[in-house]
Amino acid sequence: MGSGAKRKAIMEEQFVIEAQNVKKFTRGLQKPIVLLDDDDAQIRLVETCYKMSKRENQLICFSQPDEFLKYMNGVLDGVNKKPELVLLDINMPQKDGFEILESIRSYNEFSEVPIVIMFTASESLQDKTKSKKLGADGFFSKPTSFQDYISFFQNI
Protein backbone atom coordinates (compact mmCIF):
# COMPACT_ATOMS: atom_id res chain seq x y z
CA MET A 1 0.00 0.00 0.00
CA GLY A 2 1.49 3.39 -1.04
CA SER A 3 1.78 6.28 1.41
CA GLY A 4 -1.22 8.09 -0.12
CA ALA A 5 -3.39 4.98 0.26
CA LYS A 6 -2.20 4.50 3.86
CA ARG A 7 -3.01 8.12 4.69
CA LYS A 8 -6.51 7.74 3.20
CA ALA A 9 -7.09 4.52 5.16
CA ILE A 10 -6.06 6.22 8.40
CA MET A 11 -8.35 9.18 7.68
CA GLU A 12 -11.24 6.81 6.99
CA GLU A 13 -10.56 4.93 10.24
CA GLN A 14 -10.61 8.15 12.25
CA PHE A 15 -13.86 9.25 10.62
CA VAL A 16 -15.68 6.08 11.66
CA ILE A 17 -16.77 6.60 15.23
CA GLU A 18 -16.27 4.02 17.91
CA ALA A 19 -18.71 4.35 20.81
CA GLN A 20 -15.89 4.85 23.30
CA ASN A 21 -14.37 7.70 21.25
CA VAL A 22 -17.34 10.04 20.82
CA LYS A 23 -16.89 12.17 23.96
CA LYS A 24 -15.27 14.94 21.93
CA PHE A 25 -18.68 15.89 20.53
CA THR A 26 -20.47 16.98 23.67
CA ARG A 27 -19.89 20.28 25.39
CA GLY A 28 -22.88 20.93 27.64
CA LEU A 29 -26.05 19.50 29.07
CA GLN A 30 -28.39 22.35 28.19
CA LYS A 31 -28.49 21.63 24.47
CA PRO A 32 -30.58 18.80 23.02
CA ILE A 33 -29.39 15.88 20.97
CA VAL A 34 -31.47 15.69 17.79
CA LEU A 35 -32.17 12.53 15.78
CA LEU A 36 -33.68 12.21 12.31
CA ASP A 37 -34.69 8.68 11.31
CA ASP A 38 -37.70 7.71 9.21
CA ASP A 39 -38.17 4.38 10.99
CA ASP A 40 -40.57 4.79 13.95
CA ALA A 41 -39.50 1.45 15.45
CA GLN A 42 -35.88 2.60 15.32
CA ILE A 43 -36.82 5.87 17.03
CA ARG A 44 -38.58 3.99 19.85
CA LEU A 45 -35.53 1.77 20.27
CA VAL A 46 -33.23 4.80 20.38
CA GLU A 47 -35.48 6.56 22.91
CA THR A 48 -35.48 3.50 25.17
CA CYS A 49 -31.71 3.06 25.01
CA TYR A 50 -31.17 6.78 25.48
CA LYS A 51 -33.22 6.72 28.70
CA MET A 52 -31.27 3.67 29.87
CA SER A 53 -28.01 5.54 29.23
CA LYS A 54 -29.08 8.16 31.79
CA ARG A 55 -28.00 11.06 29.58
CA GLU A 56 -29.26 14.40 30.84
CA ASN A 57 -29.56 16.16 27.49
CA GLN A 58 -33.05 16.23 26.01
CA LEU A 59 -33.41 13.83 23.07
CA ILE A 60 -35.57 15.24 20.27
CA CYS A 61 -36.56 12.76 17.55
CA PHE A 62 -37.99 13.42 14.12
CA SER A 63 -39.27 10.87 11.62
CA GLN A 64 -39.84 13.34 8.77
CA PRO A 65 -37.09 15.44 7.19
CA ASP A 66 -39.43 18.42 6.84
CA GLU A 67 -40.21 18.38 10.58
CA PHE A 68 -36.49 18.26 11.33
CA LEU A 69 -35.75 21.16 8.96
CA LYS A 70 -38.59 23.15 10.52
CA TYR A 71 -36.96 22.62 13.93
CA MET A 72 -33.58 23.75 12.57
CA ASN A 73 -35.21 26.84 11.05
CA GLY A 74 -36.60 27.52 14.52
CA VAL A 75 -33.03 27.40 15.81
CA LEU A 76 -32.07 30.07 13.28
CA ASP A 77 -35.06 32.16 14.41
CA GLY A 78 -34.10 31.78 18.08
CA VAL A 79 -37.24 29.76 18.91
CA ASN A 80 -35.56 26.35 19.37
CA LYS A 81 -32.33 25.41 21.14
CA LYS A 82 -29.29 24.76 18.96
CA PRO A 83 -28.48 21.04 19.10
CA GLU A 84 -25.48 19.72 20.93
CA LEU A 85 -25.31 16.91 18.39
CA VAL A 86 -27.31 15.91 15.31
CA LEU A 87 -27.70 12.24 14.38
CA LEU A 88 -28.89 11.51 10.84
CA ASP A 89 -30.05 8.39 9.05
CA ILE A 90 -28.79 8.13 5.47
CA ASN A 91 -31.55 6.12 3.82
CA MET A 92 -34.86 7.96 3.95
CA PRO A 93 -37.45 8.02 1.16
CA GLN A 94 -38.25 11.74 0.87
CA LYS A 95 -34.86 13.35 1.47
CA ASP A 96 -31.83 11.30 2.35
CA GLY A 97 -29.41 12.12 5.12
CA PHE A 98 -26.92 13.51 2.61
CA GLU A 99 -29.40 16.14 1.42
CA ILE A 100 -30.22 17.06 5.01
CA LEU A 101 -26.54 17.27 5.93
CA GLU A 102 -25.82 19.50 2.95
CA SER A 103 -28.75 21.75 3.87
CA ILE A 104 -27.61 22.11 7.49
CA ARG A 105 -24.00 22.80 6.58
CA SER A 106 -25.07 25.59 4.19
CA TYR A 107 -25.73 27.79 7.27
CA ASN A 108 -22.78 29.31 9.12
CA GLU A 109 -24.79 29.08 12.35
CA PHE A 110 -24.56 25.28 12.16
CA SER A 111 -20.91 25.01 11.15
CA GLU A 112 -19.86 24.10 14.70
CA VAL A 113 -22.73 21.71 15.46
CA PRO A 114 -21.34 18.18 15.42
CA ILE A 115 -23.21 16.02 12.96
CA VAL A 116 -22.85 12.28 12.91
CA ILE A 117 -24.24 10.20 10.09
CA MET A 118 -25.46 7.19 11.96
CA PHE A 119 -28.32 4.81 12.41
CA THR A 120 -27.60 3.43 8.99
CA ALA A 121 -26.93 -0.15 8.08
CA SER A 122 -24.43 1.02 5.47
CA GLU A 123 -20.78 0.12 5.84
CA SER A 124 -20.09 1.53 2.37
CA LEU A 125 -16.82 3.40 1.98
CA GLN A 126 -18.62 5.53 -0.61
CA ASP A 127 -21.23 6.59 1.98
CA LYS A 128 -18.52 7.35 4.54
CA THR A 129 -16.54 9.40 2.03
CA LYS A 130 -19.62 11.32 0.89
CA SER A 131 -20.63 12.00 4.51
CA LYS A 132 -17.22 13.41 5.30
CA LYS A 133 -17.12 15.49 2.11
CA LEU A 134 -20.49 17.07 2.97
CA GLY A 135 -19.35 18.03 6.45
CA ALA A 136 -20.28 15.17 8.76
CA ASP A 137 -18.11 14.90 11.85
CA GLY A 138 -18.39 11.14 12.00
CA PHE A 139 -20.06 8.00 10.72
CA PHE A 140 -21.49 5.36 13.01
CA SER A 141 -23.29 2.26 11.76
CA LYS A 142 -26.49 1.13 13.43
CA PRO A 143 -25.62 -0.74 16.59
CA THR A 144 -26.63 -4.37 16.70
CA SER A 145 -27.55 -4.58 20.37
CA PHE A 146 -29.19 -2.57 23.14
CA GLN A 147 -25.86 -2.37 24.93
CA ASP A 148 -24.15 -0.88 21.86
CA TYR A 149 -26.77 1.88 21.72
CA ILE A 150 -26.54 2.51 25.46
CA SER A 151 -22.73 2.62 25.31
CA PHE A 152 -22.83 5.07 22.43
CA PHE A 153 -25.06 7.45 24.38
CA GLN A 154 -23.14 7.04 27.63
CA ASN A 155 -19.92 7.99 25.88
CA ILE A 156 -21.06 11.12 24.07
The biggest beta sheet is recorded as: 5 strands, parallel
Distance between the termini: 34 Å
Q: What's the number of extended β-strand segments?
A: 5
State the CATH architecture. 3-Layer(aba) Sandwich
Features:
globular, Rossmann fold, 5 strands, 6 helices, alpha/beta, 156 residues, five-stranded parallel sheet, disordered N terminus
Can you describe what's shown?
The chain is of the alpha/beta class. The protein has a single domain, classed as 3-Layer(aba) Sandwich (Rossmann fold), CATH 3.40.50.2300. Helix content is 42%, strand content 14%. It has six helices and five strands. A five-stranded parallel sheet has the order 2-1-3-4-5, sandwiched between helices. Helix 2 crosses helix 6. The longest helix is centred in the N-terminal third of the chain and has 14 residues. The radius of gyration is 15 Å and the shape is globular. The N and C termini lie far apart (34 Å).
Q: Could you give a quick summary of the protein structure above?
A:
The protein is α/β, with parallel strands linked by helices and 156 residues long. The chain has a single domain, classed as Rossmann fold (3-Layer(aba) Sandwich). The chain has helices at 3-15, 40-53, 65-76, 97-105, 125-133, 146-154; strands at residues 33-36, 59-62, 85-88, 115-120, 138-141.
